Amino acid sequence: MKKNLLIAGDSFSSDWTKKYKGVGWVNLLDQFNVTNVSQAGVSEYKIYKQLENQKLTKFDQIIVCHTSPYRIPVQKHPVHANDILHKDCDLIYNDLLDSKENPLAKVAADFFENFFDLDYAVFVHQLIIDQIKIKVPTAIHITFFENEQDDIVSFYDIFFKYRGLMNHLNDEGNKIILDKINKLLNNGKN
């Protein structure tokens, strides 16, 4: 009988088949009954809310894919609100740079350039991660961003080397991540 697996997180763990042809590592976990509540481009706060909205006891294993501390939660993104994959996206500076012709994107970019407090964002991000770890103490914690925490596995080097269209990775990158995730799920080292 297949185990029930919950995946919560950002675009690195969301289901990109909503928008693109192909498969990412999250679509290849055939040995599990997968519930994937990840959303592309979301902040750590929305990842916490993903977990809060699930009955966690019905899952045998949980993966939490943590995001960048530089995302600001918003109810409606000024650029991506109508995109099927990124409709729940939060603000991050790089997303706004290419859309400065959009008046709301320009205002948001100006906020990042003139008022954003990086230390505060990192501090709050860590507080939310700590709350997630309390909520799901046995979860596997991963990220595709640079990370110095021993209990969060970083795949930043793989992302940097194998960039592509599905979950920000090419086919080879997705296969490498799948192998590492399977090892983590089977209580092995990545």
Strand content: 5-15%
The name of the CATH architecture is: 3-Layer(aba) Sandwich
Question: Given the C-alpha coordinates, what overall shape results?
Answer: globular
CATH class: Alpha Beta
- Give the strand line-up of the largest sheet: 2-1-3-4-5
**Weakly predicted, low-confidence segments:** none
The succession of helices and strands, N to C, reads EEHEHHHEEHEH
The chain-level mean pLDDT equals 95
Notes on the structure:
- The protein is an alpha/beta fold.
- It has a single domain (3-91, 118-185), classed as SGNH hydrolase (Rossmann fold), CATH 3.40.50.
- It is built from six helices and six strands; from the N terminus they run ββαβαααββαβα.
- The chain has helices at residues 44-52, 93-97, 103-114, 118-135, 156-161, 171-185, and strands at 3-9, 32-36, 61-66, 140-143, 153-154, 163-166.
- Strands 2-1-3-4-5 form a five-stranded parallel beta sheet, covered by helices on one side.
- Helix 1 (44-52) packs parallel to helix 4.
- The longest helix has 18 residues, at 118-135.
- It is globular, with a radius of gyration of 16 Å.
- The model has no long low-confidence stretch (mean pLDDT 95).
